[in-house]
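name: query_chain
kind: protein
chains: 1
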Amino acid sequence: MKAPIDIPKHVFTVLNQVFELERKLSGLNDSMKFDRSLAKLREAFDSQEMQFIIENPLHQRYDITRTDVVATISSSEHDELVITEVLKPVIKVTSNGVSRIIQKGVVIAGLPNAESQ
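structure:
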């Protein structure tokens, strides 16, 4: 059994806010001027012992065997589902060469063309 990793709540709060800022800024034309600052925020939590990864699973294939996300399915069909919206990202921590999910993503899955309808 894997030993639990104790991550303070404020780390989750800041990493989730970095994700939200990146998501909101992606729609702006001049969002690149914020990239360096956001990268520095991410790096502020990394150390030699532990690195954090914020993963955005948007547009990835979804099926019920995925263990890294919790999904609400917005379609009556269950074949060919993709993640159409990410409410919370997947957060992983890498320590001593081992990567673990410390926060499952919260997503909405639907048909690939559902967002264009």
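note: The first strand starts at residue 50 and ends at 55.
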